[in-house]
Amino acid sequence: MHKGNEGVTALWPLELRLAKSRDHLTVMWDDGRSDRLDAEYLRVESPSAEVQGHGPGEKKLVAGKRQVRVEAVEPVGNYAVKLVFDDGHSSGIFTWNYLRTLADDHGERWARYLAELEATGSRRDP
For residues 2 and 87, is the Cβ–Cβ distance under 8 A? Predict the structure, then answer.
């Protein structure tokens, strides 16, 4: 754990490992936990304005990303990474806190995503 600018203790990744298949990212945390985050999940939950919108209730449903892969993991300062996906999306800055939130909330977020796909007649496949 490390002190952030606000004096709040935050979790810190010891290692980010992109699978050779590029279909998931593994994050090893300084509290001993390890989380596997699939590329599709990271893509549809990207923190970019393109996905999240510019305010509450503006999140966009991103369908057809079952086969998406992470092409690159680029450091952003000492607080985040930019993920470059093979579908051209590269505008999301994934902070350490956001990556941990995605891991912590995976079940709820993924269930909501699947329900939204079903409700709109959209699919995970391209």
Answer: no
pLDDT of residue 53: 84
Beta strand segments in 20-114, E:
24-29, 34-38, 70-76, 80-85, 93-95
11/100 Cα distance (integer angstroms): 8
Query: What's the pLDDT tens digit per position in 49-67?
Result: 889 988 888 889 999 999 9
pTM here is 0.90
In a domain? residue 37: yes
Structural domain of residue 93, as residue ranges? 2-120
Residue 37: count of CB within 10 angstroms of its CB: 20
Assigned domain for 125 exists:
no
Round to whole Å and give the CA distance between 78 and 57.
30
